[in-house]
Amino acid sequence: MTKQTNRRNVTISLFIATFLAAIEGTIVSTAMPGITEDLGGIQLYSWVISVYLLTTVISTPIYGKLSDLYGRKSVYIAGTLIFLLGSTLSGVAHSMNALVWFRAIQGLGAGALLTLPYAIIGDLFPFEQRAKVQGWTSSVWGIAGIVGPLAGGVLVDYVSWRWIFFMNLPFAAVSLTLLWLSLHETPQKKKPHIDYPGIVTFSAGMFCFLYATTLLGNHNGAGIAWGSIVPLLVAALVLFIVFFFIEFRSPEPMIPLKLFRIRTLSVINSSGFLLAVIQVVIVFYLPLWLQGVMGRSATYSGVAMIPMSVTWPAASIMAGQLVAKFGVRRLLIIAVILLFASSAGLTLMNEHTTPVFLMVLIGILGAGFGLAFTSFTITAQSAVGRDMRGAAIASHNLIRTLGQTIGIAIFGIVINTGSSQTIDSGLLASSLHIVFVVIAVIAALSFVLSLLLPQSGKDSLESAKAAS
């Protein structure tokens, strides 16, 4: 980066972009009942969300690698423009089929918004400042968790569901303008090599895999269509094997395999995968417990989740302040202990659990996630040099998203097996209890992984400084 870069304006631009990416999931989920009432196509309800996640996962590592080759600015702008195109088309969609396709386009652009802000922050700031800025960036996700459902409800009730997509346009325009005027990069001197075979095989393999897991998680209590799922999984396996050999021989692989030989990255990627599984269970299944087992309203379940939306950003900001002083290992151990204690507490719940007890657990979960995920991102930024920073962050985000996707598919089988279309609170409580026990075990495994990081916070800090 050159001295002409205005770091304050660039940071504001990235905060706006991160907010748009973070709010997208919650605001669309809130608006879906109104969308289906207007457009029909209730059978495609889940695909409006699933196809967005699918294309986001596929595009994330591609943007990361392209930004390493061509520079962050041009790739980020291209991705944001694709996101805006998908948003505009989604806002004018007049059928559910069209909306699904337009959401796929939006997801293709969202991969840039989810990955490149972290890479740009890693380029702009030295380690100590990077940790602080990263803490604030991570807190944006907690703020979006509060604002998203409220904004979605207000727009659907008083304006139109179409504005949940149109609202992206002015915010993204401000973000792009700030970035265009304020970020100045040193041009790349070498001619980049694009790993087209890797991009094609990865995209095809990931599509087959995610499509199979989506079918698995959305069977809605009916028999699982193994006849469709197994061929997709086999095709994904074959394509991933081909992808591995392509990457091994490519001079500029899309996902550099040597990243997985870096111990620190391997540990945080593995732990990030496990904690993403826990996260998706908390977000999707705690409201189900509140409504299906305890008989509470949807509004009540939304209020009960507020403690997480408060403690998550607060812990993210704290992590940004503390990671440079104490190191990633200590913070991660504290985070995982909090997640294990609160997950174990969920196994003690029954239909008579007091709201105060549950909200305390939810608040502790938010603090654990805030500390852990912020520490993960700072480490991914700092464990490699600039030439691989985009790929490293994108790979970490990919693995965390896979954790969410696989988690919701696997636990969806447990929930749908244990309950029927007409919810029986007793059966639902039994199946959810199994889920809570499993995530407590997963939290324990993540604790073991955290012990594999460098032994002292000082070691972790010094290695991060050296890499940056």
Strand content: under 5%
What's the rounded overall pLDDT mean? 82
Number of discrete helical segments: 17
The main sheet comes to: none
Order of helices and strands: HHHHHHHHHHHHHHHHH
Return Rg in Å. Answer: 21 Å
Task: Classify the helix fraction into a percent range.
Answer: over 70%
CATH superfamily of the largest domain: MFS general substrate transporter like domains
- CATH fold-level label of the largest domain: Growth Hormone, Chain: A
Structural class: mainly alpha
In summary, what is this structure?
The chain contains 17 helices and no strands. It is mainly α.
Write the SSE topology.
Blueprint lengths: L6 H33 L5 H26 L1 H20 L4 H29 L2 H32 L4 H4 L1 H15 L13 H22 L8 H24 L13 H31 L4 H7 L1 H21 L1 H19 L8 H28 L3 H33 L6 H26 L6 H11 L1
Helix pairs in contact: 1-4, 1-5, 1-7, 2-3, 2-4, 2-8, 2-15, 3-4, 3-7, 4-5, 4-14, 4-15, 5-12, 5-14, 8-9, 8-15, 10-11, 10-14, 10-15, 10-16, 12-13, 12-14, 13-14, 13-16, 14-15, 15-16
Can you tell me about this structure?
The protein is an all-alpha fold. The chain has 3 domains: 1-182, Growth Hormone, Chain: A, CATH 1.20.1250.20; 196-254; 256-468, MFS general substrate transporter like domains (Growth Hormone, Chain: A), CATH 1.20.1250. Helices cover 81% and strands 0% of the residues. It has 17 helices and no strands. Mean pLDDT is 82; it is low at 417-421 and 456-468.
Notable features of this structure?
single chain, 468 residues, mainly alpha, Growth Hormone, Chain: A, 3 domains, 17 helices, 81% helix, 0% strand, globular
